[in-house]
Amino acid sequence: MDTLTLRVYLVNTPAIIKEKHALVFGLQASPTKLMPENWRAKTTTTPGGSGPVNPWGGLHCGYKGPFRNDWQIVDKISEAQKTGVFDEAWFTDYVAKYDPPPCYGNWDWLESCRVFAGMRQRPAMTYQEELIQSVVQSE
What we know:
By secondary structure, this protein is an all-alpha fold. It has a domain at about 50-139. Helix content is about 25%, strand content about 0%. It has three helices and no strands. It has helices at about 70-85, 90-100, 110-115. The longest helix is centred in the middle third of the chain and has 13 residues, at about 70-85. The termini are far apart.
């Protein structure tokens, strides 16, 4: 079969639509970040953690990614986990430039990154709490 059908129900209750409406929507494939070369052959390409997103630079469970959605943070934490070397200068410069607030409101963000970067045995998954409102951080 060479056909794929996507059926989208824009109105899912009985209704009478009396006027024409222009609807525009888009679909986005996931993941949206480019995958590393030969990623399918690697077993450690996806960061993991047996808890919320803050092990990867987020501020609380509601975050969908790292602080400022800056995936360099994830790369740096992952690099430290693999090599055992935490790039203190990079993180210190990052804090000076962007001033991340404390994780969960009371845990220093830099200290959180140090702790999770020091975990050499990475668990298999990371979750986020879908029912928590994520904070929008302005530039």
